[in-house]
């Protein structure tokens, strides 16, 4: 195995494929012309790779110089105070980066591999998206394709969108383009003329430009009054100059992107969907958006995502897809915004989880921080795949449903992507309302105990220097269930080996913590570590019988009992309607008592990996209706009408990039009960029971092993190849306990931990009946260029002890310094010159129009 990369390489100025550099220079020239038009003089600044550098300067002045890439919140505020940058200059520089880097990363998969015609895409950062015309022939990666006899594939194609029939998007199967030099992470940028389809182009002209053109929707008169990101930045410069009140405005001039389900009243908002609303922006902000706006943040962009936070699932029903996908690996994708790629390899997934664009855009330095959403992997996956820091607060410390399209109300929650833990903690502090704290009357799930909320600053706990021995005396539990390898499978080994070494070297030797490892039959105990006693399986054995006994009655997909030892011990018993199992003599209730008190062996597979699976909950139908009705009511109160208010209207006015989702949404339309069918497992009840079980299991482990914090590996697998074969589960076993934290609703803090350059990608094999493609593991290594693909460690403790979690996580990040700025997204030519502007009073009266407006883009629905 290649040694994992753990230290930052020299900064690269690579810009993707040969020939792309000149194209980016052309793109940037339009931004420079735009800056010139608003009287922005240009001044160069020295740069480095961590927010600033020392350079020769005149006597008596600071030697520190601001640098946009990898800059922190403190760096921005210092640079503004010292007059090195203005707020407007900073946002103009981010806008220029979006113009250079936020393009398409995927190409179509077709049956014949023939080129497709060039078609226009939506306007982003002043330019129409350009899609590749080259396609990939399916037989290049599907073996024995000529012998395939299964259902037809949902091949790639270009189609016009439902939202705006004048623009196109990719539908069906795609793969990532090698060396794309793009990321496709932001689907809407808050710039006049392109931030809305309803009020598109000249229909979003600034009020100073005079009356709107004929045919402009009436609501656009209201919409145009809202400043775009550049105008808001100029307003801040005019009001505060070099001396903003950071106590009142702690997020002053910090540009944020929001996952599209979060309502932003000044941008297109549809949850990533290609859904034709009458008014494509909401009447008011989501609670978190409003709070950050009040605290001085720039509401800059909406990030790409897996639409509806994971495409909504499928409740089952009569509607079936006419075409199928051979794989959905790496499709963290929305019909309106397209599919992003990993910032470290554009052929690979930007996430395992739906907040893909949030993680990728933060890592590529397209904005400072992003507000993501997670059900079970959607914030942590993007942070892991793109080497970001993440704070995912407990369910539900901060609001999610206060103006957002949800997917599963029992696990949906908001998270914070930044590049450092300390910045994410600053954002968490800023989200606290001075009157209500974190409670949101619009979100019933924020009714958590007050004792679970710190009464002090979260950021104050996240300021550890990482000096040697700074965690001495702390006991950290290592969750080995997250980092297992399996016989005959090489795929997990590179990351597991690197993560194990990282924990021992940095957390143990360097920082001085005592490491205590959990026990799992698939993990060989480390003689240098203490073992947990009790470990997770022992805690489960004591608590499952009294909190969630139904787990022991579960059946596999083929209808066999999940826990054979339980069946062997009990007398014949009905597990499900018509399903009777049991070859022993014990009453099931007596077995439960004996298991709790250790008089029968613990079933071999009763562990925190196996028990995480839950039945589908029927609440997505409710979640969308709740959102749509609220949104329409908000508009009605302001005198406007929104008619997309229910499932029939949604389906009639939507398009979906995959036919499987079209069929699923018709099934959701026909759901009429929050309960699963009687006699089946109940998804809502299982979520409540599992949360109670997991929280008590973890507290038993913490109490009896005297642990301060727990650490786990986020994923033992690297980012997968978009549209290609996923890794199958090990035969007769199961990877990881990744859903534990979300299912328990616990605060988790994720930190970049390094990179691996050796991977073992799975491949496809045609099934014996020739009706489907089966993913198979291979042990053939692929060596990747530096820095490789990232992996992350995740820290957690119980609710109300986030100060301990942040202390350990920030100490680890400061000591390890593992994050590498993505080499393909370095500084763009001329970037330095955009950062500085005239004094605020010279620009205060100006109304900035985007290139989309000045170019006369036609608009309006």
Could you explain how this protein is built, in words?
With 861 residues, this protein is α+β, with helices and mostly antiparallel strands. Helices cover 27% and strands 14% of the residues. The chain has a 12-stranded mixed sheet with strand order 10-13-11-14-16-15-24-29-23-17-18-19, sandwiched between helices. Strands 6-3-9 form a 3-stranded mixed sheet, with no helix packed on it. Strand 20 and strand 21 (579-581) form a beta hairpin. Helix 1 packs antiparallel against helix 3, helix 8 packs parallel to helix 9 and helix 12 runs antiparallel to helix 14.
> Biggest β-sheet, characterized?
12 strands, mixed
Overall spatial form:
globular
Indicate the proportion of strand residues. 5-15%
Uncertain runs? 1-50, 53-60, 838-861
What percent of residues adopt helix (DSSP H or I)? 25-40%
Strand order of the largest sheet: 10-13-11-14-16-15-24-29-23-17-18-19
Distance between the termini: 56 Å
Q: Structural class of the secondary elements?
A: alpha+beta
Number of helices in the DSSP assignment: 22
- Round the Cα radius of gyration to an integer and report it: 27 Å
Q: Total number of β-strand segments?
A: 29
Q: What's the pLDDT, averaged over the residues?
A: 91
